[in-house]
From TrEMBL:
Cross-referenced InterPro entries: G_HFLX_dom, GTP-bd, GTP-bd_M, GTPase_HflX, GTPase_HflX_N, GTPase_HflX_N_sf, P-loop_NTPase
Family the UniProt entry places it in: Belongs to the TRAFAC class OBG-HflX-like GTPase superfamily. HflX GTPase family.
Gene3D superfamilies, alphabetized: 6.10.250.2860, GTPase HflX, N-terminal domain (3.40.50.11060), P-loop containing nucleotide triphosphate hydrolases (3.40.50.300)
Source organism per UniProt: Ligilactobacillus ruminis
Keyword tags: Cytoplasm, GTP-binding, Magnesium, Metal-binding, Nucleotide-binding
Subunit and interaction comment: Monomer. Associates with the 50S ribosomal subunit.
Protein name: GTPase HflX
Binding positions for Mg(2+) per the UniProt entry: 210, 237
Length: 419
């Protein structure tokens, strides 16, 4: 484990202590050992160096005492602050943004996640490139001359060149990502066409979303459904997984497990992960999984809600799922309105959460009687697949069918409705 010092400017934010605790957890997730925490109370961060000179001296001393060469900072710093604070403390500066990115980079397994992280890292590195006045003569570098398309006059500064190279790399990666996303869009369209309701598990990282998903798959999945990856670490999940849950009453629905949140998730990362997160944006219902055994769970709920807003997920009904109740005194499983206290590891809890989800997503369904002409048989198939058929009789001019249907299916088939 690498020894580090962490530091934060206390601007009197109500959640300051929580964000510092979170920062320590993030550092640990990056294989770092927090040797000391240095805090400075300020009205606003010092624009040139984040903390004042005196504090920087103190940090430098702490670094020497603990043999720590890295300083982790609780906010996103400007390139100038990084440089100056580095000079003043004689330490390598890693801000919150870079730290989170580092964890994402170490966790990314799929091609898509890797590309998303790389794009975010390059975007962040752009403004952080060192200003360097050394002129690099491009034509000298490339052997010069005649046929070069790159006629940039006398040359460009190293900074300009670095920016250009990075810009180009970003576009190449974005193109690769787009190809992957397009393939996924096809699968998504097929899913949409199935007309199944979709539910997304969202929430703070390590709350137990993947464990809940696996519990659901155990109880209502098919045997060949793959379990998702669950582990006691921050950001175990970086890819969205979607599975279908099956029920005897035909009320199947889709469930998706998504990437977890942390406060001040870097903007560039949120941008890069937008498509991964879009599963939540399209859901009919969100299940916010909360680790109720964590003393900071109220802050974690706020963090989740702020992040959802940031990615444009608003006005979707939500169930609050207070998980890990086995680690608390609270009785479980227990439903209260749109809240459930449960444990993702307890099968009885999983049954209850299914009950609550179904109650919510199917609550606007209606029993409607349709008469479908024999020539329109495909609508019968649709009713059988997407609705719950209660009764079927045959008349001379068509099939009379009573079914429990969603508002959407009802309006699509409204011309066949019997009054
Ligand atoms: N005791 C207990 N532990 C749980 C429960 N649910 C999940 N856990 C543990 O909490 C840890 C995190 O679980 P995950 O399901 O991976 O959490 P997640 O929300 O998917 O986390 P990210 O993918 O990192 O966002 C794992 O070690 C789980 O075994 C529970 O009900 N009780
Ligand atoms: Mg997970």
């Amino acid at each position: 484990m690498t020894p580090v010092i962490i530091c934060g400017a206390d601007l009197n934010q109500p959640d300051f202590d929580y964000t510092m605790q979170e920062l320590a957890n993030l550092a640990e997730a990056c294989d770092m050992e927090v040797k000391n925490t240095v805090i400075q109370k300020l009205e606003r961060p010092v624009s040139a160096s984040y903390v004042g000179r005196g504090k920087a001296e103190e940090i430098k001393t702490q670094g020497k005492i603990h043999d720590a060469k890295i300083l982790i900072v609780n906010d996103e710093l400007t390139p100038m602050q990084i440089r100056n604070l580095g000079d003043l403390t004689d330490m390598k500066i890693i801000d919150r943004t870079a730290l989170i990115l580092e964890i994402f980079a170490s966790r990314a397994r799929s091609k898509e996640a890797k590309l998303q992280v790389q794009i975010a890292q390059l975007r962040i590195s752009l403004p952080r490139l060192h200003t360097d006045n050394d002129k690099v003569k491009l034509d000298q570098q490339t052997g010069g001359g005649g046929g070069s398309f790159n006629s940039r006059g006398g040359g460009e500064t190293k900074l300009e060149k670095d920016r250009r190279v990075i810009g180009k790399r970003i576009s190449i990666l974005k193109k690769e990502l787009k190809d992957i996303e397009e393939k996924q869009n096809v699968t998504r369209k097929q899913r949409d066409a199935s007309g199944l309701r979709s539910v997304a598990l969202v929430g703070y990282t390590n709350a137990g979303k993947s464990t809940t998903m696996n519990g659901l798959l155990r109880v209502c999945g098919k045997d060949d459904d793959k379990q998702v990856f669950e582990k006691d670490m921050l950001f175990a999940t970086l890819d969205t997984s979607v599975r279908r849950l099956h029920f005897k009453d035909n009320k199947d629905f889709l469930i998706s497990d998504t990437v977890g949140f942390v406060s001040h998730l870097p903007h560039q990362l949120v941008q890069a992960f937008k498509s991964t997160l879009s599963e939540a944006a399209k859901a009919d219902l969100l299940v916010q999984v909360i680790d109720v055994s964590d003393p900071n769970y109220c802050d974690m709920i706020k963090t989740t809600e702020t992040t959802l807003k940031e990615i444009g997920v608003e006005n979707i009904p939500m169930i609050y799922a207070f998980n890990k109740a086995d680690l608390t005194e609270a009785p479980y499983p227990e439903i209260l309105g749109n809240q459930i206290t449960y444990s993702a590891k307890d099968p009885a809890s999983i049954e209850k959460i299914v009950e609550l989800i179904k109650e919510n997503i199917f609550k606007d369904d209606r029993i409607v009687t349709f008469k479908i002409p024999f020539s329109e048989g495909r609508y019968l198939d649709e009713l059988n697949v997407r609705g719950t058929v209660l009764e079927t009789t045959y008349e001379e001019d068509g099939t009379v069918i009573s079914a429990n249907v969603s508002p959407e299916l009802h309006s699509r088939l409204s011309r066949f409705e019997m009054h």
